[in-house]
Each structure stands twice: as structure tokens, then as C-alpha cells.
């Protein structure tokens, strides 16, 4: 592909990507950062774990995005009695009184599935997690004596942070499959809160979603274009060194002089970011650079996605694990504050 | 009582002689002679022993009268402690008259313990040459004589003052002024050094940007060195900020460090250029790039020092 064609393609897709953001922002207020991060995840082809309370608009957000990118949207609720086969098929009695089998939500749309929303994934059993995580990684499933391909599927899962009863904590290996964990918080702005309370348009989620222009993106072209972005955005040796420093800082923060209140940093980390995690970090950062209309990766691109890509991958020692959400955010903030950008590159 | 005839005769003769004398030295009338001007000493008090008092008298005498030289005041005459030390008489004829100008100098040689009134004596002058014997008198002139010592001094010992050490002049206010001036001068010199010096041998001179500026100035203008220059400025920012500073933290940095606020645009430009140079494409002219960073670091050093 010639450079000029690539540039045009990049500019065209950028315009459409930003249009998707603006369309979603029309119906989802106070979540600009989350929308930008989900946009990045879509173009980086990464799965997303949504973190947030009940009724903050996660479903509406996902439905709006799905409408914007086109394709099919499927959803399943995580429950303690949910079994893996519930994702693959369901059985029922037909009109003729004979048992029937149909594809489950995961297979129903076939290759047209663009967004799969797993609500309260931590209520499902580990067996369900195992199946789901395998599909997320491989994007295909063997069932009904044939292979189902899900090449365009992006999984958005919601983790219930409030309740602990009848929940199963997602193991670190499973969390690592998600590119990002994005917090969906209630907006702090009082006017937005007031609008969410009193503006009747927010009372009908379905009508709200209909306001988003459909097919802004072509879901079945995203995989190919994602490769174009990754190839187009270059990373200098300085940024490579910097990313390497960041990675090492997630593994051994004390070595970089990082200090945290009420935490023995030397004993905090059991496992830092994984190679897959760092790969996803750079992938997401390149998409951010593309959205910022740049051809080169800057530290700001890494910072823009660092918390969301890295924080949920860190494995803490048991004594700190119950505070992981707060500590992981604090640690990633300290890493960015402490690890200097060009220090090691200068010595070269 | 009987009177001797000879006595009567003598008395009569004396009476006649007296009448004759009165007839001969009549007071000159204005028509014949008059004192047209007298200039007395200007000061009539505070006269001490040895002082010379001068008076000038101008006398107009109508012809044929003239002043008899025999009656001129005689130099050396001492009267009541006042000696006539000089006499000058000049005569000048005009319009049937003779104008006499008489300059008399008196010197006071009297002794007194208290101020007393004294006078320059009257000088009687006779006129001759005319049908009558006339005279004209220079009037007295009174003045206060002042003694040089007080009246009650009897011995020098009683009047002696004890010898005392000379009183010191209070120069404290000068000293404070001098110290103040010295302080100001020293302060000004330090400020001048502070503004212009690059070294860190004065307190507060080891600022992060001062160090960065010093290092950048020493860098050779060779390829790759621009990274070091950028590093030095970034390190200074990080040190001042207390953690890594990136472009998106700039507002927070400027809020916390108001002295850099006037450089906001330049700092934003620096971050943009730094990103380009480090992560996209290195500068083409490394020398110019480093020189510009040296200028920027100096401006930032001035911000750091609170210097405009």
C-alpha cells in the first residue's frame, strides 16, 4: 500500500472514529474518557473489562457503541448457575413437542458478532470464565460439529465490585486477557447529575441508543485497519527504552525509588505486567497516537492508556490483594510520576 | 565794712578784662562758620581698650575768617584715658569760604572693670583773620566702654577652667547609615552575581535550571548531543515539579510554580519540540537546537531565581 493511500485511509478512519465518539457522547454524558478508551480498545481489537456500580449506563454505552460500529450485539448475565454450554447453545421444546437446540448467544450471530457483553462476569463460575477466555483469545469455537469463527468479536465484561457473595474472583491470568479495565463512574459534575435525574430522554435507554448514527464504522474492516495503524505508528528507541523502564517498574517498583504510604513497596508485587500486557499497552498507545494525528509514539500516548491497561494485570501479595483496586491505581500513578522518560536512552 | 579802693580797682579791671575777652571769642554764627558734617564711629558700644575711634569733621569758614592753626587739636593729647593719636587737617577754598576737613583718630587707653560711658572730647577751635574773635567747638561723642574681663575677677586662678577631655562627637547615626549603605552595596553585588553567575558557589544558586543551563552550555554541538540537552531540561522540570512533568501536567506545574507562568507558551513549545526530537525526527541543525535550548534554560533559570 502506497504511503499516500495509507495516509488517506488513516485520515478517513480517524474522522470516522472521532465521529463515533461524538455520536456516543450525544447520549452518554460525563463519560468522555471512558468513551475515548473504548474507542481505542475497538481499534486495538482488545477486550474490555468495565468496572463500575449498578445503573451508571454501561449497557447503554455498549449498545450505543455497537450501533455505531455495526454488527451484532449479544449479552449474557453472569449468574452462579450459569454453565459454559449456556453460552454455546440452549434447548427448548419446539412447536412439534420435540426438543430443539439452537445456538447460544455466543454463536447466534456468527461472524457478524461485533460486541459481546458479559454482565457481572465475576458471578459466573470459573468453568464459564475458562470458556469465555479461550474464545476471547482464539476468537473461534468448535460446536455442533463445526468451527464457529468470531473474528470481529470484542468482549466487554462488567465486574460487580460491590457484592462479594456468590461471586468468583477473576484470576490474574483471566484478567490478563482483557486489554483494559475501564472505570465507569458517576459523573462528578452537578449539572450532568441533574440532567441524568430530570432529563426524560435518559429514562428510555432504547430510544436513547437509537439516536446514535448506525454504521459509522464497518465492524468487519476493523481487524485489517487495526494492523494498518500498528504498522504506521513508529516507536523511537527512546520510547522503547521508556516502555521497558515502565515494565520493569511494574515488576520491581522499589528499584525505581517508588514509595507508597502504608505499603512496603518491596513486598507489594507478586507479579508485574506480563509481556502480553505490555504488548497490549503499546498497541493501545499506538491507536491513541493515531487518534492524536501523529505518526510517532509519544510518552503521552502511553500515559493515556497506562492505568487502564496495566493496573488490572498487577498481581499483589496476599496481604495487599484486598486493596488491589486502590493500590494498583496508586502504583501506576507513582510509576508514571517517577520513571523518567529519556533517562536510560541518554546514557546510550 | 569798708572796702579798700585798690581792691575795687582790681575787681573792676578783672571785670573789664573778662568782658573784653568775651567780646574777643564770641561763638561763631552760622554765617561766619559752621560744622557742616560730622562722621562719628559707627559703633558706640562694645569699645575695648586699644580700639581706635575715628571721626571726621567738616567746617565751613567764611572769609576772611580762618581756623587758627594754633588751636588745632594736638596729637598725643590724653584726656580721660583717650589719646588723640592722629590729626589730619585739610583746607580747601571755594566761593569765598574755606572748607576744613579734620580727621581725628582717638585710641582708648582707659581702665575699667565695668562698662562705663565715655566720650570723645570736645575740641575748641578759634577763628582768626576777621574783625571779631570767634570760636567753634567740635561736640563730644559718647560711647560705651566695655572691659575685657568681668568685674569680679580678682585672680586668674579663680577664673581658671579645669582641663577636660574633648567631648566625643556622636557618630552613631553616621555609623548606621554607613552600615546600611554597606549592606545595600553588598546586597546589590550579590544580586548582580546571582543574576549573572552560572556557578553554584552562592546559596540558592544551585537551582535545577541553573544546573541545566550550565550543562547545556558545555555540550558540544554534535549529533546526539541534543538528547542530552533535552534530558537536562527535562530533569530540571522533573526536579522542580517533584515528579515527572509531561505536557499534560503543565497547568498544574504552572499553578504550583507561578514564577514560570510567563513562560507558559515557551514551555509548551519545548515539550512539543522535545517529543518531536526524541520520538519522531531528530533536529536537522543540532547546533542551533542546542543554542536555543541554552537560551530557554537561561530564561527558565531566571524564572527559577525570580529574575525578570
UniProtKB/TrEMBL annotation, chain A:
Annotated CDD domains: AAA
InterPro entries: AAA+_ATPase, ATPase_AAA-3, CbbQ/NirQ/NorQ/GpvN, ChlI/MoxR_AAA_lid, P-loop_NTPase
A GO term, aspect molecular function: ATP hydrolysis activity
Residue intervals of the AAA+ ATPase domain: 44-188
Protein name per the record: ATPase AAA
TrEMBL record, chain B:
Keywords assigned by UniProt, alphabetized: Membrane, Signal, Transmembrane, Transmembrane helix
Superkingdom of origin: Bacteria
Record has Membrane as a keyword: yes
Transmembrane parts of this sequence: 176-195
Signal peptide limits: 1-23
UniProt protein name: MxaA protein
Lineage, broadest ranks: Bacteria, Pseudomonadati, Pseudomonadota, Betaproteobacteria, Nitrosomonadales
Gene encoding the protein: mxaA
Amino acid at each position: 500500500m502506497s504511503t499516500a493511500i495509507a495516509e488517506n485511509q488513516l485520515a478517513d478512519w480517524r474522522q470516522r472514529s472521532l465521529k463515533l465518539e461524538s455520536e456516543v457522547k450525544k447520549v452518554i454524558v460525563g463519560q468522555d474518557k471512558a468513551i475515548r478508551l473504548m474507542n481505542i480498545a475497538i481499534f486495538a481489537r482488545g477486550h474490555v473489562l468495565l468496572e463500575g456500580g449498578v445503573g451508571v449506563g454501561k449497557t447503554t454505552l455498549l449498545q450505543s457503541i455497537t450501533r455505531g460500529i455495526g454488527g451484532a450485539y449479544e449479552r449474557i448475565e453472569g449468574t452462579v448457575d450459569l454453565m459454559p454450554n449456556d453460552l454455546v447453545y440452549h434447548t427448548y421444546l419446539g412447536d412439534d413437542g420435540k426438543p430443539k437446540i439452537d445456538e447460544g448467544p455466543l454463536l447466534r450471530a456468527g461472524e457478524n458478532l461485533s460486541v459481546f457483553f458479559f454482565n457481572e462476569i465475576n458471578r459466573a463460575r470459573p468453568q464459564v470464565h475458562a470458556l469465555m477466555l479461550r474464545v476471547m483469545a482464539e476468537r473461534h469455537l468448535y460446536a455442533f460439529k463445526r468451527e464457529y469463527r468470531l473474528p470481529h468479536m470484542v468482549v466487554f465484561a462488567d465486574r460487580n465490585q460491590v457484592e462479594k457473595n456468590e461471586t468468583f474472583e477473576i484470576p490474574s491470568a483471566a484478567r490478563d486477557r482483557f486489554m483494559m479495565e475501564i472505570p465507569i463512574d458517576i459523573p462528578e459534575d452537578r449539572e450532568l447529575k441533574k440532567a441524568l435525574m430530570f432529563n426524560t430522554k435518559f429514562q428510555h435507554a432504547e430510544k436513547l441508543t437509537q439516536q446514535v448514527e448506525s454504521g459509522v464504522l464497518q465492524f468487519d474492516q476493523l481487524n485489517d485497519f487495526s494492523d494498518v495503524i500498528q504498522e504506521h505508528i513508529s516507536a523511537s528507541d527512546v520510547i522503547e527504552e521508556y516502555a521497558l523502564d515502565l515494565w520493569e517498574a511494574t515488576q520491581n517498583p522499589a528499584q525505581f525509588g517508588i514509595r507508597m504510604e502504608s505499603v512496603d513497596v518491596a513486598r507489594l508485587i507478586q507479579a508485574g505486567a506480563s509481556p502480553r500486557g505490555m504488548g497490549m499497552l503499546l498497541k493501545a498507545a499506538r491507536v491513541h497516537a493515531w487518534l492524536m494525528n501523529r505518526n510517532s509514539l509519544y510518552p503521552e500516548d502511553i500515559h493515556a492508556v497506562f492505568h487502564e491497561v496495566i493496573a488490572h494485570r498487577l498481581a499483589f501479595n496476599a496481604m495487599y490483594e484486598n486493596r488491589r483496586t486502590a493500590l494498583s491505581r496508586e502504583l501506576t500513578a507513582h510509576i508514571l510520576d517517577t520513571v523518567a522518560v529519556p533517562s536510560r536512552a541518554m546514557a546510550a | 565794712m569798708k572796702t579798700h579802693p585798690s581792691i575795687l580797682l582790681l575787681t573792676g579791671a578783672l571785670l573789664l578784662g573778662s568782658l573784653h575777652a568775651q567780646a574777643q571769642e564770641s561763638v561763631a554764627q552760622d554765617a561766619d562758620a559752621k560744622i557742616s558734617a560730622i562722621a562719628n564711629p559707627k559703633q558706640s558700644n562694645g569699645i575695648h581698650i586699644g580700639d581706635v575711634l575715628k571721626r571726621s569733621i567738616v567746617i565751613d569758614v567764611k572769609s576772611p575768617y580762618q581756623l587758627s592753626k594754633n588751636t588745632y587739636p594736638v596729637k598725643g593729647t590724653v584726656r580721660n584715658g583717650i589719646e588723640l593719636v592722629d590729626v589730619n587737617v585739610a583746607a580747601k577754598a571755594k566761593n569765598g569760604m574755606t572748607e576744613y576737613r579734620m580727621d581725628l583718630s582717638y585710641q582708648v587707653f582707659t581702665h575699667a572693670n565695668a562698662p562705663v560711658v565715655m566720650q570723645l572730647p570736645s575740641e575748641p577751635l578759634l577763628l582768626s583773620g576777621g574783625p571779631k574773635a570767634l570760636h567753634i567747638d567740635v561736640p563730644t561723642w559718647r560711647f560705651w566702654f566695655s572691659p575685657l574681663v568681668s568685674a569680679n575677677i580678682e585672680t586668674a586662678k579663680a577664673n581658671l577652667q579645669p582641663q577636660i577631655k574633648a567631648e566625643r562627637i556622636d557618630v552613631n547615626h553616621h555609623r548606621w547609615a554607613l552600615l546600611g549603605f554597606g549592606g545595600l552595596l553588598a546586597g546589590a553585588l550579590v544580586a548582580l552575581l546571582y543574576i549573572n553567575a552560572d556557578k553554584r558557589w552562592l546559596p540558592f544558586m544551585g537551582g535545577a535550571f541553573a544546573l541545566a543551563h550550565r550543562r547545556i552550555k558545555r555540550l558540544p554541538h554534535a549529533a546526539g548531543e541534543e538528547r542530552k540537552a533535552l534530558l537536562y531540561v527535562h530533569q530540571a522540570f522533573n526536579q522542580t515539579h517533584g515528579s515527572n512533568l509531561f505536557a499534560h501536567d503543565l497547568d498544574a506545574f504552572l499553578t504550583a510554580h507561578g514564577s514560570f507562568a510567563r513562560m507558559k507558551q515557551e514551555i509548551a513549545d519545548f515539550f512539543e519540540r522535545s517529543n518531536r526530537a526524541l520520538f519522531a525526527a531528530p533536529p536537522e541543525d543540532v547546533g542551533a537546537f542546542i543554542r536555543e535550548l541554552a537560551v530557554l534554560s537561561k530564561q527558565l533559570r531566571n524564572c527559577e531565581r525570580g529574575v525578570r
